[in-house]
């Protein structure tokens, strides 16, 4: 009779023995806890039930049975009450769990909503709930963190599309239109955080459907800034590689063509005059020397920092002075050489490379300074940094070319202004920059067209060790 009554109850009920064995589950609780698969006479333990449906808390029940502490808890929108059974004198106690009827019709929905809410909050991406027009209603905590939003109320009810820069907005609106018509919208674009840090996002916009009607939108934005930067770097590297190969081929072709052409002449006309033959062979030798220098420079650049020593004690002033003397020889007294302050500076690095660096800058000063001009060298220590300055009163470099002169094979086109181009392959400064960077330093240029140039090398003295 009692059991029949309990069976009618629109209220979930479970009865437990003191050892935690379940002695009775009414049909409402069976449905609610999805226990229909178990035979009605099967004695379930608390742990079996808890494991099966996750709606009941084994700890709560054990606590109740062992210590008599009644409790209640909310489990995914469902309030579960645990009570001790009335105690017949001296007998062991049992317990019951009640699942209120009022929550029944909405339980499934509650549970789904609860699961969605949990998903919404634990997602590592930035998730937003919006109304069907795309006004922001809610943003998950990780999203607020990613977007650096301290106070979401300022964004609430604002159109989401307006958070995006104008350039990206058409893509945002298109994805929203897709979602508003029941499809899934997707795009990638840059959008700054609330604190104005630009990030790149991969965004999916989905409709929230009620039957066929779109009642809201969910947007999930994944921060792909790092990935986008890597891809950009890879693209740039591939582009640079391609440019390098085509520039290198072009540079190598000139001396090769000269050698080939000159040798052709000698083979075709074996009886040309000895003096002319000598001249042609001299040309061949010059081209071969240029070819060999080109290949050597290109190899040096391609090898990267592995070719630079890090542990030599370098007396930088002596290195600079030795390059200074070489440059004077190259100039052949066509220029005034002024030696400024030359402070004794000692650092760890690669002596040969640092000499090569100084000589590249001095050679350029000689090459791009007309006869009678002045070339000046100075070395001093400034705030833990060795500062080497190579200054000339030469032709100077136009502002628009100053960024490019450190690129491989770049040479300022002087043919339009001056036909006396001293020649070169445009690898000197890229090598200089590579040596400076291998010593963790910087190389800068200050220059004005027609007034001269100053190249400044700064090398940190403390950690002036080269990358392994
Ligand atoms: N001191 C300078 N004054 C004016 N222009 C300069 C100076 N140094 C470099 N440049 C410009 O920068 C370009 C690149 O210099 P870089 O030393 O890399 O190549 P290069 O001198 O042309 O050839 P090389 O590979 O033989 O050194 C030069 O072609 C020149 O136009
Ligand atoms: Mg040069």
Automatic annotation (TrEMBL):
Reactions mediated catalytically: ATP + protein L-histidine = ADP + protein N-phospho-L-histidine
Swiss-Prot/TrEMBL keywords: Kinase, Phosphoprotein, Transferase, Two-component regulatory system
Domain Histidine kinase: 247-463
Superkingdom of origin organism: Bacteria
Enzyme class, spelled out: transferase
Xref: SMART domains: HATPase_c, HisKA
Pfam families assigned: HATPase_c (PF02518), HisKA (PF00512), PAS_4 (PF08448)
EC number: 2.7.13.3
SUPFAM superfamilies in the record: ATPase domain of HSP90 chaperone/DNA topoisomerase II/histidine kinase, Homodimeric domain of signal transducing histidine kinase, PYP-like sensor domain (PAS domain)
Protein known as: histidine kinase
Organism for this UniProt entry: Deinococcus roseus
Species lineage: Bacteria, Thermotogati, Deinococcota, Deinococci, Deinococcales
């Amino acid at each position: 009779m009692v059991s029949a009554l309990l069976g009618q109850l629109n209220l979930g009920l479970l009865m437990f023995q003191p050892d935690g064995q379940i002695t009775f589950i009414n049909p409402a609780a069976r449905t609610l806890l999805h226990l229909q698969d178990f035979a009605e006479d099967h004695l379930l333990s608390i742990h079996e039930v808890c494991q099966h449906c996750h709606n009941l808390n084994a700890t709560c029940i054990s606590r109740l049975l062992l210590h008599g502490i009644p409790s209640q808890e909310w489990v995914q929108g469902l309030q579960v009450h645990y009570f001790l059974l009335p105690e017949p004198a001296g007998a062991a106690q049992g317990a019951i769990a009640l699942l209120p009827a009022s929550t029944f019709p909405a339980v499934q929905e509650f549970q789904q909503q609860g699961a969605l809410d949990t998903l919404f909050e634990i997602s590592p991406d930035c998730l937003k709930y919006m109304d069907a027009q795309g006004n922001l209603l809610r943003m998950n905590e990780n999203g607020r963190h990613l977007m650096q939003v301290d106070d979401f109320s300022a964004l609430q009810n604002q159109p989401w599309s307006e958070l995006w820069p104008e350039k990206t907005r058409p893509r945002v609106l298109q994805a929203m239109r897709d979602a508003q018509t029941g499809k899934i919208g997707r795009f990638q674009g840059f959008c700054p955080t609330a604190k104005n840090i630009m990030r790149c996002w991969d965004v999916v916009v989905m409709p929230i459907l009620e039957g066929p009607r779109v009642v809201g939108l969910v947007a999930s934005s994944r921060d792909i800034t790092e990935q986008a930067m890597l891809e950009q770097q890879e693209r740039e590297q591939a582009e640079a590689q391609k440019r390098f190969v085509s520039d290198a081929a072009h540079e190598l072709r000139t001396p090769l063509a000269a050698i080939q052409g000159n040798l052709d002449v000698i083979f075709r006309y074996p009886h040309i005059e000895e003096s002319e033959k000598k001249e042609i062979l001299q040309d061949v030798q010059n081209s071969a020397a240029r070819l060999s220098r080109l290949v050597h420079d290109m190899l040096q650049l391609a090898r990267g920092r592995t070719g630079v020593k890090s542990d030599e004690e370098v007396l930088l002033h002596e290195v600079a002075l030795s390059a200074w003397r070489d440059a004077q020889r190259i100039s052949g007294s066509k220029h005034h050489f002024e030696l400024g302050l030359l402070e004794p500076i000692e650092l760890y690095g690669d002596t040969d490379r640092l000499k090569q660096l100084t000589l590249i800058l001095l050679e350029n000063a000689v090459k791009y300074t007309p006869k009678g001009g002045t070339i000046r060298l100075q070395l001093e220590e400034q705030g833990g940094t060795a500062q080497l300055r190579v200054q000339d009163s030469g032709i100077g470099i136009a502002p628009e070319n100053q960024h490019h002169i450190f690129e491989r094979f770049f040479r300022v086109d002087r043919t339009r202004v001056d036909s006396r181009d001293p020649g070169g392959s445009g690898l000197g400064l890229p090598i200089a920059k590579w040596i400076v960077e291998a010593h963790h330093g910087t190389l800068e240029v200050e220059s004005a067209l027609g007034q001269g140039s100053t190249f400044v090398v700064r090398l940190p003295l403390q950690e002036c060790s080269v990358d392994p």
